[in-house]
Design the sequence.
């Protein structure tokens, strides 16, 4: 039995968080996987897994080995993809981490459309608003809505993105008019606790100088969709992602404020680890999303 097979067994067990779950996922027996992992530990002279009948965890050596071995296996698999005669042959699992906002909004349809077009791929779409370490947690690609910062990761911009300050016509008739973003400090606002700015909303003066306005209000919610619904009812003013706000703006339920003062330094990006051999499945996925957004404009 070669070392590569033992390494794959070890990684399968860690990814599945247990021998039984790994056996069900890959169709091998629990006893066989246990044998492979035990042989790998014997070969290395180190314990990789702490395992009892009720508990399962990586040792310190196991953490180190898992991280590096996962990357090595990905490089091997990616190289195989690269030299296949039929380069359009997509197989295996594609693990994607995506913000909940993206999945729940209309643009989340892009993921479903990709899955429909490529049924030969198994998509694992994990909706999570926290910052995910792609390498540490074994994801192939991430969708992020953010200001692009320096990173060891590779990013491809899929679309422009902007936060919009929105309120209902009824609220503006009652509480307006507003001349400058600093007026927001004196009116009820709806706070999205998922946002980085939270209660300190970012703006930029016409001369380019940035400033923030500290806001407060009757509702705090960790969902821009809920914040949009609250704004429509006239409870207060909300900062909303443009892809959530636009349909309600077009319907007349919401209007925008202070567009001249809003930063335009964000985008929707596909992020993936820097690898010498980019997997065909990742490249195909990113190209598809890029084209999907171009067609949607």
Sequence:
């Amino acid at each position: 039995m070669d070392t590569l097979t033992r390494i794959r067994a070890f990684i399968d067990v860690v990814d599945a968080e247990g021998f039984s779950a790994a056996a069900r996922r890959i169709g091998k027996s629990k006893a066989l996987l246990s044998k492979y992992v035990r042989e790998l530990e014997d070969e290395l002279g180190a314990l990789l897994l702490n395992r009892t009948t009720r508990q399962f965890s990586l040792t310190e050596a196991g953490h180190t080995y898992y991280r590096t071995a996962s990357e090595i296996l990905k490089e091997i698999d990616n190289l195989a993809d690269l030299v296949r005669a039929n380069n359009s042959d997509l197989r295996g699992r594609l693990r994607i981490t995506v913000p909940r906002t993206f999945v729940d909004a209309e643009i989340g349809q892009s993921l479903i459309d990709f899955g429909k077009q490529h049924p030969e791929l198994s998509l694992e779409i994990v909706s999570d608003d926290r910052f995910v370490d792609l390498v540490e947690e074994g994801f192939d690609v991430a969708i992020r809505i953010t200001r692009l910062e320096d990173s060891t990761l590779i990013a491809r911009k899929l679309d422009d993105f902007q936060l919009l300050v929105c309120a209902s016509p009824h609220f503006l008739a009652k509480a307006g008019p507003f001349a400058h973003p600093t007026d927001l400090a004196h009116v009820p606002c709806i706070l999205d606790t998922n946002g980085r700015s939270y209660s300190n909303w970012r703006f930029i003066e016409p001369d380019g100088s940035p400033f923030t306005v500290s806001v407060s209000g009757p509702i705090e919610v960790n969902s821009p969709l809920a914040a949009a619904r609250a704004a429509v009812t006239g409870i207060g003013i909300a900062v909303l992602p443009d892809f959530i706000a636009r349909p309600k703006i077009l319907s007349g339920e919401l209007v925008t404020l202070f567009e001249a003062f809003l930063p335009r330094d964000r985008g929707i990006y596909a992020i993936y680890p820097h690898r010498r051999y980019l997997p065909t499945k990742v490249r195909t996925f990113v190209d598809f999303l890029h084209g999907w957004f171009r067609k949607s404009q």
Observations:
- DSSP finds eleven helices and 14 strands in the chain.
- The longest strand covers residues 153-161.
- The mean pLDDT is 85.
- The two ends are 54 Å apart (CA to CA).
